[in-house]
Each structure stands twice: as C-alpha cells, then as structure tokens.
Amino acid sequence: MTRASKIAFFIGLLYLNIPFSSAFCSIDILSIRWWTAPDYTRVVIDTSERAQYEAKDSNRKLTIDFKNTAFPATIPHQYILNKPAVKKIFLCPLPGDKVRVELWLSKNVKVKIFTLQRVLNKPHRVVIDVRLPEIEKKESQERKQVQISEKKKIIVIDPGHGGEDPGAIGRRGTKEKNVVLKIAKDLRDILINRGYQAFLTRKGDYYVSFKKRLKIAKEYGANLFISLHTDAYRSRGARGSSVYCLSTRGASSEAARLLARNENLSDVIAGVPNGQNNGESDPITLNMLQTETYNLSKSVGSIVLKDLKKINHIKYSKVHEAPFRVLKLPDTPSILIEVAYISNPHEELLLRKSSYRKEVAWAIASSVQEFFPLPSSFAKGEVREVRKIKRPVFASHASTPASVPATYVVKRGDNLERIAKRHNTTIKNLQELNHLKSRNRIYAGQKLRVLPAVA
Ligand SMILES: [Zn+2]
Known about the structure:
- By secondary structure, this protein is of the alpha/beta class.
- The chain has helices at residues 3-17, 133-149, 176-193, 210-220, 254-263, 266-270, 291-308, 345-352, 354-371, 376-379, 416-422, 427-434; strands at residues 27-37, 40-47, 53-58, 61-66, 69-70, 78-80, 86-94, 98-105, 110-116, 124-131, 154-159, 197-200, 224-231, 242-245, 320-321, 334-341, 406-409, 447-450.
- It has 3 domains: 23-133, Sandwich (Immunoglobulin-like); 150-379, Aminopeptidase, CATH 3.40.630.40; 395-450, Membrane-bound Lytic Murein Transglycosylase D, Chain A (Roll).
- A hairpin with a 2-residue loop joins β1 (27-37) and β2 (40-47).
- The protein binds zinc ion.
- The site of zinc ion has 6 residues, from loops.
C-alpha cells in the first residue's frame, strides 16, 4: 500500500466508525449508567466533552436537550429501569444536531441536574439525581427512633465508596466498594447476633456523600462509627491492614496524609451536587473534635489492630491519624480500617474469599465486644435473629480444638490453591503451616499439615 492509499484507507476507517450525524457534532454521548439507593436514583450521562443542555421538568417527565451532540449507534434508544424514582429513559436525535434524553419519573420526586468534570479515568458527566423526599424523611425518622427507643450500644458501619465511585480496583478487577460492603454486612449481622444494634450507611451499590454518611451516624445516635476500606498502592508488594482515626494535629505521617487525601476524593469522583460537599468549610472542623472522643477512637483502633493481627499482616502497629472527612464526628469514637491491600495480588485473592471476609468481620466484632462489653440483654437471650455468620477456621486460631492441623498427602496434579480451596483455608496458611517458601514446590506423596475444613 502506498503512503497516500494508506492515509485514504485510514480516513475511510475513521469515517466508518463515526455515525453520520456525529460527523458535524463536537460532543458525543458515550454511555448512560444508573444506580439506585432506597431514597434516590442517580442517572449518569457520560459525554466526550463538557455538555451544553437545556432541561425541562413537567408532568413526571424530565426532558434534557443536548446541543451540538450525537450518540453512536451502539447506545440503545431506550432503557427500562422500573426503579422507585425513575421508570424509563429514552434517547432520540432532534434536528439541528441535538439529542433529547427523556426520563419518565415517579410521583413526588425532586430532581437535581449537575455536571462533573473529567476526573481520573472518568469522562465529563451530566448527573441527574432523582430523589424521593418522602422516603428520605421516613428513613431519617426511623433512624432517630432507634436512638430514642433502644438502650443497646449502637454501631454504625460505613462501607466506603459505592456506585459511581468504585474505590480501589485490584489486578483481577476486584472493586473495593463491593468487598467492603460484604464485610460490612457480615459485621452488622455478627454484631446484631451478639446483642448490639448495628446499621450500615449504605446497603447496596450506590454512592452516599460524606455529609450524608455523617448525618446517618448522628441520626442513629452512633456509639461507635467504623468506616471500612481496602488499601491500594502502585507497588504490588505493599500489604497489610491499618487503622486510622481523626486527629486534632493533622496527619501522623506523610503516608497517612496521602491516604486521607485519596479517600477524601470520593465526593469528587462520585460527584455530589453543590451544597452537599463536605469540604473544608464544613462546620464540623477538626477543632471541635473532643479529646475524649479522640482517646476513645485511639483505644478502639488499637483493639482492632490487635485482633486483625491474628488474621493478617499489620502495616503499622499503632493507630495512625489523618484528616479523613468521613470521620468528622466530634462526639462519636470513629475509626477507619483499611482491610489489607486490594492492589496486592495475594491479599486481593484473600479479599475475594467469603471465608476471609467473614474472618475480618469476626475480628472486628471481637474488638467491638472488648471495647463495649456485651449488653446484659444479650445474656437474657433477647437477641434479634439475623443471618448467622459461621466463623471460618484459620491457622491463627490454633488454640481452639477445631483447628488442630490434619495431614494431607499430596496427589499428582495437586497444587496449593486447590488444596487450600478443598480445606477452606488459604495458600498463605498452608505455606506458613508447612514452612513452604514457594507455592509451586510441592510433590506427590508429600505430607502437608492442613486445617480441617469447617463442618
Ligand atoms: Zn477507600
């Protein structure tokens, strides 16, 4: 192919990839996504450039006309959501290089539209929040009732990120938002079974602003607030769990400061409308943090570190401090736990395992129990029945009779991963129990010490 024909061929390919209408438009609609919380649905329209639009809201229909815009043929013309706030979304091209997006809404909703700039790997976005004020009010009232009516200790668990904000992503694609939600649900159920009142700041895959998370904790009248995250770093070797609290003196180390800076980006990545941003001007400032709250946060954090150490490597032996926005509760002991590194391939594998996540939840629940000894009502058997979380057996619990190692003879074709899976344990535990330096060095006939699987 000559140089000229190569160029012509390339231009031809380009032309084929661009829908006819968009050849004259400078902005493309890239995709439409949505997340549903109990009290709102968020629709996100990704655009190639900052969108120009006009919106009209009438008769349960929101019409947004995008100027100078096209959408590729790969994008469907209609989406059936059937969510409490949004029923359907329609797209259609209009004359004059316009695109109309129509949202069919439920009764009694409040709509807020705002744009978000490019950030990290996110494109320009038009965000439509469709709120259900009646549900919001009802949920808020229910939370306040808990505070009034119950005498048990109230633990509010905060699974970080959610929805538009995935948090850190492991090499196998594991998302922090999903892992921490699962641990949070396990922890909540274990605590309820033990006689505490435990609640989540989010129950599904949707984003909750920092401000709303704090509001939820306050409305419940939380005695303890636990924010759950997983750590990430460029180097895949970084590993271990760590615990943080808010301090009056800024960050206790440069690493803690950077971590808080990253975690504090959530509102920017997921996007919150103006006025909801819990920024520096927030009335809850570091100065208002009570010394007693700080001391209590430190002590519960130390207990959590001690218990997490039984199941995984600990990054720091002490509780570190940094200005995490989600911990700005002046009167409530509050900690943020980074459960292992999702960027570390081995720890990502652990976090993907239900048995390991449950082990983490059990460890944190034990810490809560040490910090707030069991309420007397528990002894009387007044415990609400929820999903039972069976405690997995790990090498670190060698003192319990259930975890006396058994012997397994390696068969041809075996590998550590398969053996670990079969015995409901981890490769790391097998390696530690058998002093194996490499996970690949096992041979047929070799006797391995393994922990019996959970019955
Ligand atoms: Zn996080």
